[in-house]
Each structure stands twice: as structure tokens, then as C-alpha cells.
Inverse folding.
């Protein structure tokens, strides 16, 4: 029996593990962090490890970078997964780090999916990070601003990792093919199809290549064609991008269908993506964005319905919760449309980014102290609720000398039509107040320059 087992070939490493880079220069992608003079490149060159949070989608190199840190700094590497680990595992990892320090070795503690740890579990790392016992490297696919404790964030640099580009995936494909199946040829369209299915995820690309390699060897196919890839891969992958469009092209089609008020097309693209394996809550977040960008104040119910649809999906899951997403998509498609707030916000942000820091007018400043009152803070401010109609006609709320920009221009649709009518009435009251102030020889507090 022993002879039988001795004769067996050792198990082959999965391609994704076999292709894991062993040096920083071998890493494909993340040039904004690893290129010459970039933050992580400088960190590796410094020889001084620091705690960090690596934020990015799956398969972009978070685990690889953590392992390379341990190698570059000649440190112990200890890994935890927040999915499977608890406080007991954290204590064991710390005990290992203390033992390593006794041997004169530092420890890189890698925590995968750190956002899944609760507050108490995240807090458990703090004293050991502060003492320098471990250098913490957390990996997360979620925004650390919302999912990682502020105390932990303050002790770690946050680096944002990006999905691999089509060119980077093509480079990885050629490197992996040369390593795993150098005799297997791929038509150009087949390679592009495979990298398209990977959707920026290096691990996914390598796993797909393994599947295709096995299928091609079994079927005796060489070269590999796009049609063979469709046959070899699972139904979901095939339907996910059946016509060759990229993932974000389908999102774009959904967005444009809703903007164009076509509920049937909106349902088609929503179902197409859900059927292909798109994450339903991702689709819900995109619907929320559409409600804000394309419906806005023409129908404020749109945002509420989309948020409720996301909450419903979180409560019910699939498939029941997906009906709420469909309801939201249909409502958005049928709702009155306005991008007035979207345009106004972008214009305001651009103006502020390029403008000087204008002081707040004296009459709008709060005066909580005696000195501030003596300096005139808040003087002559008109309390709108005490004014006729609840509106202080002619009052100015912009910095002195700044022309009214009129960024927000309501459209004549839905609720915004009424908003536009109200703003027009208020502007007329402003003009009448300014006219009276001019006739009385008073330079009113408005400070407006008549450019409205």
C-alpha cells in the first residue's frame, strides 16, 4: 500500500496559487501604488513596515501584497480570516507574535475581510498595534470609512486597490498560459472573451483558464475558440456577458433605459444581470444612484423606494427580494425625470474647488459670546419665520460680492415644476424688496449685484 501511495504524483497547486507573485516587480496591476515613487513602492523600499488597510474588490492582490510585505521585511506572516476567526483566534495570533518577538522576529498579521469583525474584535488589535508587536494588514472589499473602527483607521494607512484593466488581464493571461499550458493556443477573440469574463479579477481569470484548459484537453480542442469557451464555462458566466458586452456596458444600458423612461428595457437589463450572477445589492446601489441623478426632486419618492428596495432585499434575500428591485427599476423608468440637482451640485463643487475662501457674511455668523456680539456677529440677520410668508425677501445668504450663480434650475416636470414656480415667486419678492430699498436710498443687507 505504501508503494502505491509513493507512486502517486503530488497534488498540483491551483493555478491561482502557483502564479502568486514572489516579488513586488512581478505583481501585475496597482501601478498607482507600486510604480516608481508611489506609496507602497516607497514603503517597501523604506524597510519600515507600517499598518495598513488594503481596500479593493476580490482578486486584485490584497493577500499577495501582505505576503510580499512579510518577505520583504523578513517578518513572520500570520493570517486570519474574519469569516472563520474569533477573539480566541486573535489571542492565539498575538501569542505567536510574542513568541516570534522573543526569537527576534517581527510579525505581519494579515486579517482578510477585516470589515466582518465586530467592534470588540477590531478593538482587540489596538493595543498590540500601538505596542508595535504586530504590523496589521487588513484586507476589505467594503468602504473602511463605514466598516472599520475609527480608532483602528487612525493607526493604519488606507490604500485603494483597483480592478485589473483589460491590458493587465491580457498580460496575466499570457503569463499564466505560458506557465500552465504553453502548447494550448487561443484565438484572440477567445482570449478577450476569457479576460472579459474575469471582470478585473485576477484570481477569477486564472480559475477560468484552468477550467478551459481541462475542458480543451478532455475534448481534444486546440486552438480554443470563443464558442468553445461558451460551452466550457458555466451557464451563468455564459449568460453574464453573452453578447460580448462588458459588465459595465450592461449597467450603462440599464441606466440609459431608466433615463429614457422605458420600463420594459429596464426590466430586461436588470433581469439579464441578475440572471448572470450580478450581486443584487450592487444593482440596488446603482438604482439608488439613478434615483438621485436622473429623477432627483422631480419625484423625491424615487430615492425612498430604491432605499426601501435595498432594505427589502436584505431582509428577504433571493428570489423574493429581487422583486423589490424590479419594482424600483420600473418606478424609476416611469417617474418624471430631472438632473437639475445633479448639474447644480457638480457646478457648485467645481466653483468651490477653483474659488477663493470667501468669509461668511457678518449677519449670518453665530454670536455665542459677548465679544462676537460686540463685533457685530449676527447683527441685522432677519429670522425668516418672523417675515411675511416665512420668507425674508431681499436677504442675502451668499458671501459678500459673490454673484448669484443660479446653479439650480428646476425642470418643468413633476414636483420640480412646482418648485420652479415657488422659486420664481421668491425671486420676484427679492426684486421688489431691492427696488424698495433703492427707492428709500438704503443699501440693503442683501449685498446682491442684480446678476440673478
Amino acid at each position: 500500500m505504501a508503494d502505491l501511495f509513493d507512486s502517486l504524483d503530488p497534488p498540483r497547486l491551483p493555478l491561482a496559487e502557483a502564479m502568486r507573485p514572489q516579488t513586488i516587480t512581478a505583481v501585475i496591476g496597482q501601478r498607482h501604488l507600486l510604480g516608481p515613487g508611489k506609496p507602497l513602492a516607497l514603503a517597501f523600499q523604506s524597510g519600515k513596515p507600517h499598518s495598513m488597510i488594503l481596500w479593493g474588490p476580490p482578486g486584485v492582490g490584497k493577500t499577495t501584497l501582505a505576503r510580499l510585505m512579510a518577505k520583504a521585511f523578513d517578518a513572520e506572516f500570520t493570517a486570519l480570516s474574519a469569516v472563520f476567526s474569533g477573539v480566541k483566534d486573535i489571542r492565539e495570533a498575538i501569542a505567536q507574535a510574542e513568541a516570534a518577538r522573543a526569537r527576534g522576529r517581527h510579525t505581519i498579521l494579515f486579517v482578510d475581510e477585516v470589515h466582518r469583525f465586530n467592534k470588540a474584535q477590531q478593538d482587540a488589535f489596538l493595543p498590540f498595534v500601538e505596542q508595535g508587536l504586530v504590523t496589521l494588514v487588513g484586507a476589505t472589499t467594503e468602504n473602511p470609512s463605514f466598516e472599520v473602527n475609527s480608532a483602528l483607521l487612525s493607526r493604519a494607512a488606507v490604500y485603494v486597490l483597483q480592478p485589473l484593466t483589460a491590458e493587465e488581464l491580457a498580460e496575466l493571461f499570457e503569463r499564466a498560459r505560458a506557465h500552465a499550458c504553453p502548447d494550448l493556443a487561443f484565438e484572440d477573440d477567445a482570449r478577450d472573451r476569457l479576460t472579459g469574463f474575469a471582470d478585473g479579477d485576477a484570481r477569477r481569470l486564472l480559475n477560468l483558464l484552468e477550467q478551459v484548459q481541462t475542458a480543451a484537453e478532455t475534448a481534444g480542442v486546440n486552438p480554443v475558440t470563443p464558442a468553445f469557451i461558451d460551452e466550457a464555462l458555466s451557464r451563468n458566466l455564459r449568460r453574464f456577458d453573452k453578447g460580448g458586452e462588458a459588465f459595465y456596458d450592461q449597467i450603462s444600458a440599464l441606466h440609459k433605459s431608466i433615463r429614457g423612461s422605458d420600463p420594459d428595457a429596464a426590466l430586461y437589463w436588470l433581469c439579464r444581470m441578475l440572471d448572470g450572477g450580478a450581486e443584487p445589492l450592487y444593482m440596488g446601489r446603482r438604482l439608488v444612484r439613478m434615483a438621485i441623478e436622473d429623477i432627483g426632486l422631480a419625484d423625491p419618492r424615487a430615492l425612498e423606494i430604491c432605499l426601501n428596495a435595498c432594505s427589502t432585499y436584505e431582509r428577504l434575500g433571493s428570489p423574493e427580494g429581487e422583486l423589490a428591485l424590479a419594482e424600483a427599476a420600473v418606478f424609476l423608468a416611469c417617474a418624471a425625470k430631472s438632473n437639475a440637482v445633479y448639474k447644480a451640485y457638480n457646478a457648485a463643487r467645481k466653483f468651490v474647488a477653483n474659488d477663493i475662501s470667501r468669509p461668511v457674511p457678518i449677519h449670518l455668523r453665530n454670536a455665542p459670546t459677548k465679544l462676537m456680539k460686540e463685533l457685530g456677529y449676527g447683527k441685522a440677520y432677519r429670522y425668516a419665520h418672523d417675515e411675511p410668508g416665512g420668507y425674508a425677501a431681499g436677504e442675502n445668504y451668499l458671501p459678500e460680492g459673490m454673484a448669484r450663480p443660479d446653479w439650480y434650475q428646476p425642470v418643468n416636470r413633476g414636483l420640480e415644476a412646482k418648485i420652479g414656480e415657488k422659486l420664481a415667486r421668491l425671486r420676484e419678492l427679492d426684486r421688489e424688496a431691492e427696488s424698495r430699498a433703492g427707492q428709500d436710498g438704503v443699501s440693503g443687507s442683501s449685498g446682491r449685484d442684480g446678476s440673478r
Q: What stands out?
A: Confidence is low (pLDDT under 50) at residues 241-245, 443-452.
